[in-house]
Amino acid sequence: MTLARSKCEETEVTTKSPLTEIRSKPLPADTHTCWSCGSMRAAHFCDSCGKVQPPVPVDYFTFFGLPPKLKIDVPALEKSFYELSRKLHPDLNARAGSQEQEWSMEQSSLLNDAYRTLKDPIKRTAYLLHSEGVELEEQSKSATEQARATGEAKKQIVPPDLLEEVFELNMQLEELRMNKKAGEDDPSLAKEISGHKVTLEAKHDALLQELQKYWTDWDSLIERNHGSKAPAEERANITAKMVDVLNRRNYIRNLLRDVNAALES
Amino acid sequence: MAERIVGIDLGTTNSLLAFMQGDTPAVIPNEDGLNLLPSVVALDRNNQPVIGNAARNALIETPERAVYSIKRLMGRGVGDIQEELKLFPFRLAEDMQPEEVLRIKLGDKTFTPPEISALILRQLKRSAERFFGGPVTKAVITVPAYFNDAQRQATKDAGRIAGLDVLRLVNEPTAASLAYGLDKKQNGIVAVYDLGGGTFDISILKLHDGIFEVIATNGDTHLGGDDIDNLLITIALDDIRGDLGLDLRRNAEAVQAIRKAVIDAKIALSSQPSVKLDIELPAGKRYQREITREQYEQLIQPIIDRTVGPCKQAMKDASLKPEQIDEVVLVGGSTRIPKVRALVKELFQREPHTDLNPDEVVALGAAVQANILGGGSEATENMLLLDVTPLSLGIEVAGGVTDKIILRNSTIPASATQFYTTQIDGQANVAIHVLQGERELAKDCRSLARFDLKGIPGMAAGIPRVEVKFLIDANGILHVSAREQRSGKEAEIQVQPSYGLTDEQVEGMILDSFDNAEEDFRRRQLIEARNEAQTILAALEKAKKNSAWGQLTTDEKKQIAKMEKALVAVNTEDDYQAIRKAIDALNQGTMRLAELMMDTAVSSALKGKNMDEADMGEGPTAPHPMAKAEFE
Description:
The complex is a heterodimer of chains A (265) and B (632). With 265 residues, chain A is mostly helical. Helix content of chain A is 63%, strand content 0%. Chain A is elongated, with a radius of gyration of 24 Å. Chain B is an alpha+beta fold and 632 residues long. Chain B starts with a strand and ends in an 18-residue tail after the last helix.
């Protein structure tokens, strides 16, 4: 907590919004006073005069005054989003000077981007992984390159527990497409594919549960380290597991998209 | 006094103007006393623009000098209006180039769609000025929620050309929800089904303690009552050709006469089981036909069915099932059609709300938003609109694929940052192609603009790191800025809007019409001042006969006479400010006279005479209210 000074802190302690929670990153030192009235201020608008402040580049968790933890109280986040919207939205700053209007637009877009990302469990996880320097796409990209270099089939692309099922499903999808081309209809085939679809959907949902298990691991790591950075090795350990879950989930999602397209066409 | 910001619904068929009066938004009527201004523009014989009902007559008499449904052409290029050209009598300039902004012929003059829309806006602006008795320069204008960037930009340009500072573009269904929510003040999920003259929108909103949060929106910017009209016209023309052997397809006057008749029939069929069409045709022939509602409903089914897909997609995007939606609100004239209402009821499994006038609710909502932007009032306290971008924003990447960087239904303002580098040593420019749409391939999305990043400092290939920030503002319009991160240099962006006017073009268009507007306004101010001068001079004449006049000193009388003479003198000149000054001086100078007259009146009253008999006069005693504006 680097804002533990004067006015701002008092306000933060007395309000019951998530803004009272610990900030994960210190704000730059020159942003502590309001450009307009000179009092101490919160991150995005001045508590004294209400004016929108110039945006400071912060991560999405910090923007909401949250620690970088993955279990989030979404209704509280929504409340916070509405409260901040009432201060930052361009509609409510339409009579301000042009500089303030610009800040309002930037702050408001940052708020919207942050809320959109954090309220969604998958986007939130992907965002955290991204800020940890792990790219989901890069994982598959590097796998592709490696496969190309060694001349072997691409590993990790089909999750091992799905190999058999995916093989069968792909055959059936191919058959379905051929049938459709020939103008034939095979209800039993469509039924089998629909059966796979149900299984895949269940697996897709189960992966979210699995992901949440790693959230707990991550959050306790953050808590154990009281806001200071946890050892890189421990972090990488957990993020690798989350990457694995997300990759598997993406794979199933793409597969489901193909299945739906084939069934609907 | 609160700023005068008006709300404008710039519709395909009709346009309206509204303003927040106290706690409630109200429509400001036009010159002819009617609320709806038909969105029709024509040129009269002297090449002067005529707008609204007057232009509607021109549509039948001189169709080559008139245009309607111009909203369909806003922000579009020649390539995307081929279908439109088959159905609407739009006459393009002969020398149109493929990449150019459309130019429409009215008589032998040409106008771009924003200029034609600007004429409609200017007409509304004048109505507002007549209503307020002073200039109106700020407005909120509504657009279909599903309008893309180019269509929004074109609307904003139209505002600028009309001399209006467009403070915000508001999506029509969202505006409707504001008007609706103002009444109800309740929380819940609301779906707004908006089928107008030329556009269809569906928006799903979450209302929460005054926050109107759009969760999903979808639509079709080329679907509306126009399509029903065109279908009926086509059928009538076919009938006439088959039964009477008359091919009227190229006869603009006859087509417009048929159009008017089928529109009347369409409206009648919303309340009657059948109508008889009886149209007088050239060569002494008549077209007569009876249409039952059942036949009519069968005919229009394919058109209204086109609204189903967008509704289902919006519910899917919002992750909501019909039973989770608390209210359905109907907006737009085409929702008066019973078959449309039945379709909505089936889709959302509930009876839709019809208690708001579907023609006016959008303009009323725009007035509410105008009030919020102007600082709000008791009625709009705590109200805030959080709208979304209807279409995904993407960048063309290798292989002609669209890389989506801001997804549809993202709350706006929204932003995304992309990094670019160079491929050749010393490369100074990078080209970026911005797209809008949901399709995978760039060629299937709409091209918004091509940006050239220029002035990248000379470095080896792959070394520069250009950060490009895309920001969609609260109007749903894209802004782009770029910075080379290694040198910190701002990269210069050259924008080529794919189907829009450049800033310079808009600037050129503003000047003439703005100058005219200024002149018009000065003329009106002059008329107003002269009227007021006449009133005060007449009042003074009357006061001279009052007993109070005798109580003034000779000096005072002399002073008043001098000021009276001055006012009479300036009143023949064209300087309204001089007239105002002289009026103020005379008002000041007759202050004691007014007091004396008041005393006389009071003492007369005490003596048993009533105030009328005491004859206070009507002039200098009362403060001069702004003279009733009597223009032209």
